[in-house]
Amino acid sequence: MVNAIYSSREGQSFLETESQALSVLDADASPCSFEAAKRAKGLGFASAVSGTLVLTNTVLGGSGLLGMPAAVAKAGYAFGLLLMVLFASCSAFGCHLLQCSARRIGQAPCSFYTVSNAVAPQWTWLIDSAVMIKCFGVATSYLIIVGDLAPPALSFFGLRQLHRWEVILFAFGVAGSLTCCKNLSGLRFTAAGSVVIVAWTIVLIVLFVFQPSEAFEPCGHPGHLEDLPCGGGEVKAVDLSEPLALGKALPVFIFGFTCQQNIFSVCNEVRNTTPQRMNGIITGAYCISFVALSSAAIFGYLTFGPQLKSDVLKDYPQNAVVAFTSLLYSMLAVFSYPLQIHPSRASALALMNLVRPSEGAHRWAAVTLLELVGSLLIAITVMDLGKILGVVGATGSTMVSYILPGIVYVQTFRDFHLRRSLALGQLILGCIIMPVCLVLLFL
Predict the structure, then answer these.
(1) Burial 92-130 (b: 16+ CB within 10 A, else e)
(2) Which neighbouring-strand residues pair with 402?
(3) Which of 136, 240, 292, 421 is deepest in the core (most CB within 10 A)?
(4) Domains along the chain with CATH numbers
(5) What angle do CA 191, 194, 197 make, to 5 degrees?
(6) DSSP label at 401?
(7) pLDDT of 50-70, one tens digit each?
(8) How many CB atoms lie under 10 A from the CB of residue 133?
(9) Could you tell me which residues are beta bridge partners of residue 46?
């Protein structure tokens, strides 16, 4: 009904049309309307625990875990933890704003697009832009991870020393072919696999600090324990000696806590999505994710100090445990690649259709080719995982975590109240973070 009002008779001013739409929204929405809409579509049967696990997996699964230790190393362990708390809180607040808007609008199933289109259709292009950039960047980071981790691991297990580009090209051949499939349901196992691999990687990082056996000696000298960090670097609580490097690391903190795209899935699938229940799901997911990411970041920093690489697993000496973990992460990255290219391609096509509508298969093929070749070339030429995480964090993640939740909430709730002011503040913060961080990244 709201969409119909937005496309009402010609000649009516935008503000008048918008006012009518919001009046309908205020009149029709009720606390029970969203649950009723879900029941009508056969949705809303999952538990709160499953919703928490979905959000947790979204935060932890992927490349953020590998890049967070290097980001914390630029700030020091105490200041790094403070930044993690700050960005995790802002990201969690973004999820809170989105679920409030989704329940108020009352459409099911809800998504970023349906919610934005109901209250701010003029900004739907921003959603497609954010999804396209973020998913393309994450897919590219997966190829970089394979190039970082697979060559030394394969060499340890007896294969010849492969060049980085050879491994990336092989991984691309497998992952790229999967992106041409129309149905990716067979790859859903990667969600469960990512949880196991991420959990083991965190345990591995912790074990290398306590060194229970020779297999977990991090400095490359089996047979005796060494004082950490390796290489004699200094571990600091607060490190402001390189402010430019710290500024470049800030988008990684944003990237590491981005999961807003799945808050709508939780709203759709979890039964009885009351404010208290949804806030509990968000709080639980972010607390678990914070403990996991901070453990990896702090213990990685304690192990290698300020010399940490942008991909933490690259720092560890090659032995059977590390090599096996590296191969597991590489396999997960390969099969996760098409799960990112698919939504990126869909958003790119939507943006192109806004400019020039077309339904030809040639456009689908052309966009697929451009995205695949683009991600391959970037992965081969960019050697630093932190650079791609920084660009994605400053653009796509900032839009998804800060700008879009602020726009949606401010447009959905027009009456003045504290939460609306905070939402507006988060929107303004995102508009500041994006250009500033992009400038810092390219200095």
Answers:
(1) bbbbbbbbbbbbbbbbbbbbbbbbbbbbbbebbebbbbb
(2) none
(3) 136
(4) 31-441 (1.20.1740.10)
(5) 155
(6) I
(7) 899 889 988 887 788 999 999
(8) 22
(9) 270
